[in-house]
Specification:
Structural class: alpha/beta
Helix content: 10-25%
Strand content: 25-35%
Organism: Caenorhabditis brenneri
Protein name: F-box domain-containing protein
Radius of gyration: 26 Å
Length: about 350
């Protein structure tokens, strides 16, 4: 005879359900429609979901994982004592207490994510996508329409159709980190103004105008692959804007694989000058940290100032292994901008 949990008062039911792990709670919720309706009484709305499509894993509250096995894992799967969770889904709990699952024909990873999300009525915190694993646009649209806060982290790796990538960039809100590594077909255009702390973009579709519009991010990483159209003009406009206060959040900017004419430079500062090392003790090099992570080190470069008293360094690293003794008309390399509050430096470093 089973325990009549559905007949308990709601407070008692909620306290009992709160003792279950997210995996146990999911299995319970699939027993019946009535069981599914009371799952939120466990305070599952406070849960957070992270989706790693590369590994086909959905993680709840960082420690409880649902791992989706591929069809070629069927022999491994059949060696375990499995059970039917719902029609079309079989699973077993592994030694770590996580749930390993294999789907029937009617289920997909996208549908399963939505199923868990709607059962718990919680928040999807991050989505990591790799080509062909998810119906990405459909999933992101569904999440955004059914939760009250933006996704914190979105990572896209692999080629998407132009219209799909355009729709995602223009419509999906991301609050902390947006990372896109994707090539596009000729003719791709997009107008988007991200409002996230960290922006990491790689592709042949990043333009000067687009880069200059990223005035709401603190750390910007751009990989300017062959075929892209970024120029030193955008860097000059950003640094000029930073000095005037138009980029109040900007702390770090790196643009990889960009060509700079030495007679143009950035804000009139040549790559030769940015290569030239300061006479400093290496122990005095200033590490740039963001969100607890070291993202660069400003041991050398040209020191500049903003109108609000902030200090920054412009640093150039030549991909041609040039030094400050070799002057060329144009160079190909990595541009970096480090911003610090003036109080972060020992006074002797401010000249």
């Amino acid at each position: 005879m089973g325990f009549p949990i559905l007949k308990l008062p709601s407070l008692a039911r909620g306290n009992l359900l709160a003792t279950l792990t997210p995996i146990e709670l999911y299995i319970f919720g699939k027993l019946s429609k009535k069981a599914a309706r009371i799952v939120p009484e466990s305070k599952s709305r406070r849960f957070t979901i992270s989706v790693n499509a590369t590994r086909r894993i959905l993680t709840v509250n960082q420690f409880h994982s649902f791992e989706i096995l591929e069809d070629h894992s069927i022999e491994y799967f059949n060696r375990h004592k499995t059970f039917v969770i719902v029609e079309g889904i079989r699973g077993f709990c592994n030694d770590d207490g996580n749930l390993e699952i294999i789907f029937g024909k009617r289920w997909s990873f996208t549908n399963f994510i939505i199923d868990v999300f709607m059962l718990f009525r919680c928040t999807v915190k991050s989505v990591q996508y790799q080509m062909g694993v998810l119906r990405l646009q459909y999933l992101l649209k569904y999440i955004q329409e059914n939760q009250s806060v933006p996704i914190e982290t979105l990572t896209i790796q692999g080629r998407l159709e132009n219209r799909e990538l355009q729709w995602i960039l223009e419509n999906i809100k991301v609050s902390k980190r947006l990372e896109v590594q994707s090539m596009v077909e000729p003719g791709f255009t997009v107008t988007f103004v991200p409002n996230c702390d960290i922006l990491n973009l790689q592709g042949n579709w990043i333009t000067d105008r687009m880069l200059q519009s990223f005035n709401s991010s603190a750390a910007i990483f751009i990989e300017n692959i062959p075929g892209a159209v970024l120029t030193a003009n955008s860097l000059t406009n950003i640094i000029t804007g930073w000095r005037a206060g138009s980029y109040p959040k900007l702390e770090y900017l790196v643009v990889e694989d960009i060509i700079i004419e030495n007679n143009v430079g950035v804000c009139g500062i040549t790559t030769y000058a940015m290569l030239k090392k300061k006479q400093r003790n290496p122990a005095e090099c200033k590490k740039k940290r963001f969100d607890g992570e070291v993202i660069g080190c400003s041991c050398f470069g040209v020191q500049i100032y903003a109108e609000d008293g902030k200090v920054a360094f412009l640093k150039w690293t030549s991909n041609r292994n040039l030094t400050s003794e070799n002057i060329v008309k144009r160079d190909f390399g990595i541009f970096q901008f480090f911003c610090f509050d003036i109080d972060d430096f020992p006074q002797k470093l401010i000249v």
